[in-house]
């Protein structure tokens, strides 16, 4: 193998070389197709699934509200979300160390949409790789204009549908239905954003395509530091295949069919490469060649370097076990933190810009803002009491009831007798009660003369 100093889809002058991949066929491609249907169904259906009246998943970044499997996380739960994110990142590292870029070939939305949606439409309208190559290189005939127009029109419609699907994950079904049912001028900024994102999706899947995987996504380059000789990846069995050729002792007849079906244009026989997304197209194609030549399938297969060189079958080693142990500890801490978090989150702060007030009855009063987040699925009747001092609380809103998974904001005035204050700044403690049961305490400061 000669050393490559550039991505496979660029020539020596840095110009792009278009990849005309042959349509894959075989059991692995069928498996990936079926799996992609479930992924696409998941992406479309999840925003419409509701648990206790809430979406299954909602990533409301603007409202700082995240719903994961029916549980709501607010801005106050940043620590819990950080634990979840760390667990997810460590899981990706462990998964990559063990199984390489299996995610890229099977579950990445970029691959799912490009290979299982856009390319299938391209195969349907323009034909397989030879027909598409001749069509692209040929003159602009009536047939070419019709096929290109039909293909790109469908691409645009799918890009718009993709944008709306992902929009559902971030704004929810209620806001989405409002966006599409109300006049455009009432949601002009949202409509403009939708068009811009749709145009970006169209450009990615119609023109940029596999370069997202080979030039933009950093995940392929992570392989260089994450994979080792025990990682399971799509591999060419060089011990069995070499020397290659139709009249040699190796099983590889050098037909280059594995190259013809590769969506990124690489030769898997050159070893592990950052462009390989583990899509298994070369496995199916090589197995069909092995069958036609009467040889054993599996010349290209999922295996590790150890498995090919030494027949070493296990995927477990010291590094995998260490990552697994850390992941288990971290995820266990996340679960503990999630289930032990308080049922409500209360914030009480003095109203900014206002000083204390001296009253005729020899009391000193401060005005406070109170925010309460209900993290349960029950409506909570609440009561606020002063625990640290004798005093009186006057609420601006007499009905202190917080709906399930909702926020309550109000103001109140705290009166404390002058003789109970020993300094100009006193720490006070409040108790939040529900049905006469103390469920949370909150401390803040009280200023006086």
Compact summary:
About 45% of the residues lie in helices and about 20% in strands. With about 450 residues, it is of the alpha+beta class.
What can you tell me about this protein's structure?
With 449 residues, the protein is α+β, with helices and mostly antiparallel strands. It has 3 domains: 27-223, no CATH class; 233-312, no CATH class; 344-447, Immunoglobulins (Immunoglobulin-like, Sandwich), CATH 2.60.40. The protein contains 14 helices and 17 strands. The protein has helices at 27-45, 78-99, 102-106, 109-126, 129-137, 142-181, 188-208, 211-216, 219-226, 238-241, 257-260, 281-292, 305-310, 318-340; strands spanning 50-51, 54-55, 57-60, 65-68, 71-74, 233-236, 300-303, 344-350, 357-358, 363-374, 380-381, 383-386, 392-395, 401-402, 407-417, 425-434, 437-447. Strands 8, 9, 10, 13 and 15 form a 5-stranded antiparallel sheet that branches. The chain is elongated, with a radius of gyration of 31 Å. The termini are far apart. 22% of the residues are buried. The mean pLDDT is 88.
β-strand percent reads 15-25%
Helix count from the secondary structure assignment: 14
Largest sheet, in brief, is: 5 strands, antiparallel
**Quaternary:** single chain
The N- and C-terminal alpha carbons lie at a distance of 84 Å
């Amino acid at each position: 193998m000669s050393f490559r100093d550039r991505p496979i889809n660029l020539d020596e002058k840095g110009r792009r070389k278009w990849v005309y991949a042959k349509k894959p066929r075989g059991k692995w491609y069928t498996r990936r197709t079926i799996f992609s249907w479930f992924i696409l169904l998941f992406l479309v259906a999840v925003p419409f699934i509701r648990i206790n009246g809430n979406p299954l998943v909602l990533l409301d970044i603007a409202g700082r509200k995240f719903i994961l499997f029916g549980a709501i996380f607010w801005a106050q739960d940043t620590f819990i979300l950080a634990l979840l994110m760390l667990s997810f990142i460590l899981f990706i590292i462990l998964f990559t160390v063990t199984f390489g870029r299996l995610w890229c070939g099977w579950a990445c939305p970029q691959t799912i949409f490009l290979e299982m949606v856009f390319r299938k439409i391209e195969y349907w309208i323009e034909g397989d790789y030879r027909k598409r190559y001749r069509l692209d290189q040929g003159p602009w005939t009536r047939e070419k204009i019709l096929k290109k127009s039909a293909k790109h029109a469908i691409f645009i419609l799918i890009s718009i549908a993709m944008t709306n699907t992902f929009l559902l994950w971030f704004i929810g079904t209620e806001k989405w239905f409002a966006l599409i049912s109300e006049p455009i001028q009432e949601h002009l900024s949202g409509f403009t954003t939708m068009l811009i994102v749709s145009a970006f999706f169209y450009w990615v899947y119609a023109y940029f395509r596999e370069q997202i995987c080979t030039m933009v996504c950093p995940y392929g380059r992570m392989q260089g530091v994450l994979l080792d000789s025990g990682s399971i990846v799509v591999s060419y069995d060089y011990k069995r295949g070499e020397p290659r050729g139709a009249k040699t002792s190796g099983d590889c007849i050098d037909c280059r069919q594995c190259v013809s079906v590769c969506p990124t244009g690489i030769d898997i026989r050159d070893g592990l490469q950052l462009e390989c997304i583990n899509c298994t197209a070369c496995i199916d194609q090589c197995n069909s060649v092995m069958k036609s030549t009467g040889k054993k399938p599996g010349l290209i297969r999922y295996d590790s370097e150890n498995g090919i060189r030494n027949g070493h079958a296990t995927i477990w080693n010291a590094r995998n076990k260490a990552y697994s142990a850390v992941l288990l500890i971290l995820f266990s801490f996340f679960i503990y933190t999630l289930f032990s978090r308080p049922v409500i989150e209360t914030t009480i702060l003095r109203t900014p810009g206002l000083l204390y007030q001296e009253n005729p009855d020899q009391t000193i009063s401060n005005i406070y803002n109170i925010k309460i987040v209900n993290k349960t699925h029950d409506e909570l009747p609440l009561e606020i009491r002063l625990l640290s001092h004798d005093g009186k609380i006057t609420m601006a809103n007499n009905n202190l009831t917080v709906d399930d998974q909702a926020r309550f904001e109000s103001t109140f005035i705290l009166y404390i007798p002058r003789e109970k204050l020993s300094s100009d700044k006193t720490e006070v403690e409040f108790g939040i009660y529900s049905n006469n049961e103390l469920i949370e305490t909150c401390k803040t400061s009280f200023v006086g003369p």
